[in-house]
UniProtKB/TrEMBL annotation, chains A, B:
TM ranges: 97-116, 122-139, 168-191, 247-266, 286-309, 353-376, 431-450, 456-473, 485-516
Lineage, top ranks: Eukaryota, Metazoa, Ecdysozoa, Arthropoda, Hexapoda
GO-annotated cellular components: membrane
Predominant cellular place of this UniProt entry's protein: membrane
Protein name: Sodium-independent sulfate anion transporter
Pfam families named in the record: STAS, Sulfate_transp
Residue ranges of every copy of the SLC26A/SulP transporter domain listed in the record: 95-484
Keyword set includes Transmembrane: yes
Domain STAS, residue spans: 537-614
GO biological process, one term: transmembrane transport
Protein keywords: Membrane, Transmembrane, Transmembrane helix
Mode of membrane association: Multi-pass membrane protein
InterPro entries in the cross-refs: SLC26A/SulP_dom, SLC26A/SulP_fam, STAS_dom, STAS_dom_sf
Organism: Hermetia illucens
């Protein structure tokens, strides 16, 4: 204790003082001291000192929370239409109109096709594409998101509902409720735990699986099974049953779509906007329009072909067949299945249905959120994305969808890109998309009969083939090679296991990386000399000291300090946090050094971490904040040691 | 690209250069630059520069690994007896003899009692207490560990084997094999992920559960059930069936043990060793000896009592009954159960047995390791503890035990303390303990018949009551309050759920803390002025940029930089790592700033992190390492911007 009172101007030994410690020494020489600042997030861009007492902090927190929850700002945040509608201009209206109709032209063929991925009749795809759009206008926070069936959500729906439309509709309700609850509890941050590599691996695997299932449709081969390998082995087994006309039509459609895509990417005239003539601009606009609506054009042409063949005595390729005309009835989602509705041939109660869907009820909301947020981020120009609000908007949309027999929906990345490129200005664009879908349901369903199945398959294939993110591998290799492990891990896990298990294993694998990071800090060991000429050992850990790493650090410190019997300084500049386990280990460490009579100092320890360590009142725990203090400290300690030896000897 | 070549002396734009970058500027002004050093663990205490090429690193790593695996050093590490036996002195022999016999006196009553916790006849406890001791002499790396049945391992054995000795013995084999495999794969580090609070919570819960089960024995009340709440409710239900004599004997025994413990803690004479007379020393030694062997004394006295009562026509309290005389037979562990051996009344195959033990096969090894390492750490005086070697030693011990019908064993913390206090010098102490156990088995088994059950229960109670770590709560509160959450969480989870699920939930809860740590860095925002007088915004994140945190950081940076339209500097002094996701976000960030025409600089970025970011070749990515460079950089950027505007205007 004597040594402590000696040195009280160079370190603080009481826990309570530490929490409001100011940096010792010249405050205008900040470079050397930067690490010891309290890291407090300040709203006004200036540094503030944290209030001393914990109670005050808690009170302030509660007051702040209560205030924000009831504030007008919160209302605006939760119903984003209040922000933009009052400022809605005619320019906004024009942009939204064009974008909404363009997206609508891709949504209709898309919805028919994605219903096929989900394994339900085509109409259910359209049923899921309008009411959620209306609601998104009120609750959606991101202008570029066109809600509706997406390839990924449809595949997950198929894996959970196994092609029963009743289950798919119930799934909408359940997923919507989960999303809404997650939103209300503010769990939007969960999406942060899906890293880029995991997300790429997952998307690529999903694309490959969808591609596989559509190739099966194009070949017209009967192939059962849901995993990637099963389907391919079935396709090869039944390859001799290939239906020639379906195959020809499908491959032709794919070729046409890809050619249009390439051609529409060509720009005539000079590259600068300013230098293009009026003619150039018109041609470019027409090319872009053809490119964007290529799916709609293909469906109309192929539908015409189907119509001609059908009237000439039967089409040689499969058509999608009867689509019930008119809007869906507004009714409760099915909460039970009768014996002939169920695939097992037995009656299924609500709990049976829920049980059969398994983890899909939680995984679909998470993946839908992931996909939606990906769109928001892609076009946000760096503005923050409110994942929690998106959860709420998706949740409300899905719940409403389940009352009109819609599939679970999300924001589809490909349509998001079209929406953005068409110049969307606000979420209002969704209203035109919804109107188009309603028009289609009311007036055009009789004509959907003639659309060939393989043309829809071709649309899906030429979309998902670009979702296989092969080109992300190279930058990943150049930036951080180890990130390929979770990326490829997720990819192969998703191909070989059920999708939800695949992505969860990928995320789990990635978490292990974080835990390893926390457990094995890098440590630099240097032999340095003080200004006064004394040699000492400088040991610098590069991150926080928490339980998985402290024993490792202790072992290294002990090893090096035993090898070179010099005073040891632990440079804590980078130690931003510590826990109880770290405090016990530091206590042991100071004890060991004290027993050996070797000096141990802590340099530049953050006050909040200092408080943690001093909670256990370790022996001989000395912290200093300026390099020149070390000489003085060494001198005093040596003198004290000499005195101690003297006392013992007398 | 032009801006890059302009500034090439102040930052490095090629990824390959970065990995061997040296700090720019005056190397003798290190304080401001400390964060940008490459953190390389150097063995000789001096800084070395990492080899440039990754291939070379890999080659060197493989060479090093191959070398260590075959080296003499490794042999000494894996068979630690080779280290200490050649230097074994007569002082060592004396210390080990005293300690070994003292521990032996506590092992014998302990083994009989712990067999009760495991729900198997008393003899199996002794069978598990000698062969593992012999083997530990060769393979154990820690002098203070006395292997044998422990309270915690016995409780876990009970939960997995449900009182079948055959299953308990098979469990020894399986746990031993798992430990050996984990050891050979070097998985000892897993124990790092059990934090202090989780370990305390677990130990306390286990102690309470054991206490509960022993109170049941002392009251002589029949109570079935394995969780804490079940047993207590059963005890209260059947409280009127309390056997008076068992209760009286039990409570008396507990009182006697606690009194001896307190009395033996008293020291006569002056506190300093040097000032004590010979008489003082002898009295203190005797008191200590009585204290240490109090369990043995109690068992002998109570056994005598039982003998007297039994011969006088039947003891009024339960005795442990027949213990088969002699050493166990050396035979294979039971790999199947016949119908009358099985508790279910049906034959059980090997796979049935394994299935019924469930996760115990993995959890017991982990918990045993945790307990053993706790002893090593407690008495290591800061020397590194080799968890992997302990796994190997425990594994070999358990496998051998299963051939002599022993229970799964570990190092018991309470006996470890006795071992250390008795002056043990090497693992050789175990040989005397093993010899005592063998003597007991060969000569004293007939006398064990008369030991009252409630005296054994009293021994356990007065041991485990001190394992309830109530006193750890206060320092935890003073150091890091949030650590109480995993601590108490583990405690209650272990009381209410099966133990293995309880501790796994506690560890999982603790992991969430680490993940949260990684996801939400603290960020300081300051408005500073350059030496040249220009204002800028300094944003300092305090830890690495990896996937869960980067979007959060990006949002904050964007928010603050939009609010104050100043040049922004991100101080990367504390950013020790980054991944692919971070690189993509940084790329987006630089793009956003570039579009807005706002300046963005990275200060003091570690070369290895710089390499990661530059893998995606971000636009306008400028790093500098010296404060005074900022003015020059700002000047150049402004000039370039002006030029650009000029070009556009002409």
């Amino acid at each position: 204790m004597k040594s402590k009172s000696d040195l009280d101007h160079s370190y603080i030994n009481q826990a309570i003082k530490c929490s409001s410690i100011s940096i010792i020494g010249d405050p205008d020489a900040p470079a050397a001291l930067k690490g010891s600042n309290e890291f407090i997030m300040t709203e006004n861009g200036r540094k503030t000192i944290a209030p001393n007492s914990r109670v005050e902090i808690a009170k302030a927190w509660i007051r702040r929370k209560a205030k924000t929850a009831c504030s007008e700002k919160m209302l605006h945040r939760r119903i984003p239409i209040l922000n933009w509608l009052p400022k809605y201009s005619s320019d906004d209206a024009a942009g939204d109109l064009v974008a909404g109709i363009t997206v609508g032209l891709t949504v209709i063929p898309g919805a028919l096709a994605y219903a096929g991925i989900a394994g339900v009749p085509a109409a259910y795809g359209l049923y899921g594409s309008f009411i959620c759009c209306f609601l998104y206008i009120f609750f959606g926070s991101c202008k570029d998101v066109p809600v509706g069936p997406s390839a990924i959500a449809s595949l997950l729906t198929f894996q959970a509902a196994r092609g029963s439309w009743q289950k798919a509709v119930l799934l909408s309700l359940l997923c919507g409720s989960v999303e809404l609850l997650m939103g209300l509890f503010g769990l939007g941050f969960l999406v942060d735990f899906v890293s880029g590599p995991v997300s790429s691996g997952f998307t690529s695997a999903v694309s490959l699986i969808i591609l596989t299932s559509q190739i099966k449709d194009i070949l017209g081969v009967p192939a059962k099974g849901s995993t990637f390998l099963q389907i391919w082995s079935e396709i090869f087994k039944n390859i001799n049953e290939t239906r020639a006309w379906d195959t020809v039509l499908g491959i032709t459609c794919i070729a046409v779509l890809l050619i249009i895509k390439i051609v529409s990417g060509i720009k005539v005239g000079p590259p600068e906007d300013e230098l293009q003539t009026r003619k150039h601009k018109i041609i470019n606009k027409i090319l872009w329009l053809i490119g964007t609506s290529r799916n709609a054009i293909l469906v109309i042409v192929c539908g015409g072909l189907g119509f001609v063949f059908h009237n000439a005595g039967g089409a040689p390729f499969k058509l999608i067949g009867e689509v019930p005309p008119g809007l869906p009835t507004f009714q409760l989602p099915p909460f039970s299945l009768s014996a002939n509705e169920s695939s097992t041939g037995k009656e299924e109660s609500f709990s049976d249905m829920v049980y059969s869907m398994g983890s899909g009820i939680v995984v679909i909301p998470l993946i839908s959120l992931m996909e939606t947020i990906a769109i928001c981020k892609a076009f946000s120009n760096g503005k923050p994305v409110d994942a929690t609000q998106e959860l709420i908007a998706l949740g409300i949309g899905n719940i409403a969808n389940s009352f009109v027999q819609g599939l679970p929906v999300a924001g589809a990345l490909s349509r998001g890109a079209i929406n953005n490129a068409s110049g969307v200005r606000t979420p209002m664009g969704n209203i035109y998309t919804a109107a188009l879908v309603i028009l289609a349901l009311v007036f055009f369903t009789p004509y959907f009969f003639f659309i060939p199945k393989s043309s829809l398959a071709a649309i899906i294939i030429s979309a998902v083939v670009f979702m296989i993110e092969v080109k992300v591998v190279k930058p990943m290799w150049r930036t951080k090679k180890s990130d390929l492990i979770p990326g490829l891990g997720t990819f192969f896990a998703c191909l070989m296991l059920p999708l939800e298990i695949g992505i969860l294993s990928g995320i789990g694998l990635n978490m292990i990386f974080i835990l390893y990071h926390a457990a094995r800090p890098n440590i630099t060991v240097e032999t340095l000399t003080t200004p006064g000429g004394a040699e000492y050992l400088m040991i610098t850990p590069d991150r926080c000291l928490i339980f998985p790493s402290v024993d490792y650090v202790r072992n290294l410190v002990t090893k090096h300090s035993l090898r070179q019997n010099l005073p040891v300084v632990i440079d804590c500049t980078h130690v931003y946090g510590a826990d109880f386990t770290a405090a016990t280990v530091i206590e042991n460490l100071t004890q060991d050094f004290s027993k050996r009579g070797q000096h141990l100092f802590f340099y530049n320890l953050k006050p909040s971490v200092c408080t943690v360590f001093e909670g256990l009142s370790p022996v001989d725990f000395t912290v200093y904040y300026q390099e020149q203090q070390l000489d003085e400290l060494l001198h005093r300690k040596d003198k004290k040691l000499a005195q101690l030896v003297e006392i013992r000897c007398t």
